[in-house]
Amino acid sequence: MTVVALSAEAMKRAAAAAALETVTHGMKLGLGTGSTAAHFVDLLGARVRDGLEVLCVPTSERTRAQAEGLGIRLSTLDETPELDLTVDGADEFDARLRLIKGGGGALLREKIVAAASRRMVVIADATKEVRTLGAFPLPVEVDRFGARSTQLHIERVARGLGLIGTITRRMAAPDAPYLTDGGHYIFDCAFGAIDAPEALAERLSCIPGVVDHGLFIGLAKAIFIAGAKGVRIIGDISGEGP
Ligand code: 5RP
User: Fold this and answer.
1) Mean pLDDT of 156-167
2) 2 pLDDT above the threshold of 90
3) Average pLDDT rounded to a whole number, residues 66-71
4) Residues lining ligand 1, judged by CB closer than 6 Å?
5) Among 48, 53, 75, 106, which residue has the least CB neighbours within 10 Å?
6) Rounded to the nearest whole angstrom, what is the distance from the C-alpha of residue 125 to the centroid of ligand 1?
7) CA distance 108 to 215
8) CA 127, 131, 137, 138 torsion: positive or negative?
């Protein structure tokens, strides 16, 4: 028997394809951002071409452009404030379905869209699974006004939880900071293992100047994890869970 190792892209696509199976006619969908979510949008585009009717809200301008190009019917949360399902990627996840997101810089819109959805499901390759969140630097979206002060505040809050690490403002080019779709900075916080993500999430949310952070807790209902042996699901895909 020949064993063919799946590439990372093939795994991402397999997770996306498995999640697409849960999409039904007439659904209102949130579309995530990133390379894994892009596979989902691509596969969804093919189903739409074949007649599937869905109405979608993208989580970034990048995803909007991709979906538009594929002829997927789009809306906004102002026009369609409640969604059935959001499918998005993640930078890390643990066994309790807690996530780090924002590697692609879209965490604010991703969180708003996920929170507006009855269910959020995550698609990822198995390399994103961790025992403890934090190997991936936590992205924190920060208003440009007073950003240096906000950074110091983040440092103090993290230190209070025993988290010490480098905080780096994300750059788009050597002399140009990265700006999110909302016009904010991203600070990538390399804290290492985050033993109490709930506490960190709560404290970061209280800092004036922090627009949002990449800890997604209590949002994902299921994760489609693609590995060498196929796609495994953790959580509940029935849509009836909490
Ligand atoms: C974008 C995100 C992405 O979902 C996350 O970065 C994963 O991306 P990829 O699928 O390319 O690994 O949070 O803000």
Assistant:
1) 98
2) no
3) 98
4) 32-37, 88-91, 101-107, 110
5) 53
6) 11
7) 11
8) positive
CB 40, CB 16: distance < 8 Å: yes
Helix/strand/coil (H/E/C) assignment for every residue in 37-100: HHHHHHHHHHHHHCCCCCEEEECCHHHHHHHHHCCCCECCCCCCCCEEEEEECCCEECCCCCEE
Architecture of domain 138-210: 2-Layer Sandwich (3.30)
Domain boundaries for CATH 3.30.70.260 within the chain: 138-210
User: Which two structure tokens, joined as six digits, stand for 231?
Assistant: 């796609």
Tell me the one-letter amino acid at 137. Answer: P
| 8-129+217-231, CATH topology level | Rossmann fold (3.40.50)
pLDDT digits (tens, 9 = 90+) for 69-104: 999 999 999 999 999 999 999 999 999 999 999 999
Mutate to test the pocket of ligand 1, among 36, 91, 99, 186 (most ligand atoms within 8 A of CB): 91
110 classed as catalytic: yes
CA of 90 to the centre of ligand 1 (A): 5
**Amino acid code (one letter) for 221:** K
What is the model's pLDDT at position 240?
Answer: 57
Specify whether the CB–CB gap between 164 and 228 falls below 8 A: no
Using the mean position of ligand 1's atoms as its centre, give its distance from the Cα of residue 139 in Å.
11
Q: Please pick, among 61, 110, 141, 155, the residue that the annotation labels catalytic.
A: 110
Mutate to test the pocket of ligand 1, among 12, 33, 61, 98 (most ligand atoms within 8 A of CB): 33
Q: 114: which residues sit within 8 A by CB, 6+ positions away?
A: 30, 86, 88, 120, 216, 219, 220
Task: Give ranges for CATH 3.40.50.1360 in the chain.
Answer: 8-129+217-231
